[in-house]
Specification:
The chain is of the alpha+beta class. It has two domains: 49 residues; 149 residues, no CATH class. It is 33% helix and 20% strand. It contains four helices and eight strands; from the N terminus they run H-E-H-E-E-E-E-E-E-E-H-H. The strands form two sheets. Strands 1, 2, 3, 4, 5 and 6 form a six-stranded antiparallel beta sheet that branches. Strands 7-8 form a two-stranded antiparallel sheet. The chain starts with a helix and ends in a 13-residue tail after the last helix.
């Protein structure tokens, strides 16, 4: 007789638990697609930001491959998004990792046009010191010109290549190169410049093979030769 209230309480708690799980499951199903679409739109916007306007006619998120070149790209596996217009490859966008930032790895997004010039470079994630190394971000000016206009260090990569400046100038000015460094934070820009140069070297070595490999959407990852 005394066990009846306990049994009822257990059944009620069980019902609430089942109901709670059901609500969570339904909410997840209803929001997962919306979240995925939001993440997709955000990524497309990032790709578009480092390419000339109107460059993308395909879907780079589907037309992507995975390459394995840790010595140059900083990670065991690196995503490569192919950008095409009129069916022809016009650019590749890679997400290399800078393994030796001042405060840890730095994740980049680097667009390389078919002619070997940089469409642009952006920082996706980092742990650099606020007020010093974080000036690699696109919204953090690293200095101001004579008119007081803010200058953004990472934006200076656009249009550069292994021809201009030449490979031996791909370093910060303190090391005899062509790129500015930050006062009190030379390690961060030095590491990023080297990583961008290595990305250009990788794309130059691979050439048209980066556009020819089948996309991950229809084939398993393949190692670039």
């Amino acid at each position: 007789m005394k066990t009846t209230p306990i049994l009822i309480a257990g059944l009620v708690l069980g019902a609430f638990a089942v109901g709670g799980v059901s609500v969570v499951a339904v909410t997840h199903d209803l929001t997962a697609e919306r979240i995925a679409e939001g993440e997709r739109a955000a990524m497309i916007a990032k790709l578009q930001a480092i390419l000339p306007a109107g460059s993308i006619e395909n879907d780079p998120l589907l037309d992507r491959i995975e390459v394995h070149a840790p010595d140059l790209l900083g990670a065991e596996a690196t995503q490569v998004y192919r950008v095409r217009k009129g069916g022809e490859g016009v650019a590749v966008i890679l997400n290399p990792v800078v393994p030796n930032g001042y405060a840890g790895p730095i994740r980049l997004l680097v667009a390389v046009m078919k002619d070997g010039t940089l469409g642009g470079v952006r920082v996706l994630a980092h742990h650099e010191t606020p007020g010093l190394g974080d000036r690699i971000e696109e919204r953090r000016p690293y200095k101001w010109d004579d008119s007081g206009k803010p200058l953004f260090w990472v934006l200076d990569f656009a249009g550069k290549s292994l021809r201009e400046p030449p490979p031996d100038q791909w370093a910060v000015k303190r090391d005899g190169g062509a790129f500015d460094q930050f006062t009190g934070a030379t390690i961060t820009p030095r590491s990023v410049v080297k990583a961008v140069k290595n990305t250009l070297l990788f794309v130059q070595e691979q050439g048209d093979a980066l556009y020819a490999l089948p996309p991950l959407a229809s084939a398993p990852p393949r190692r670039a030769s």
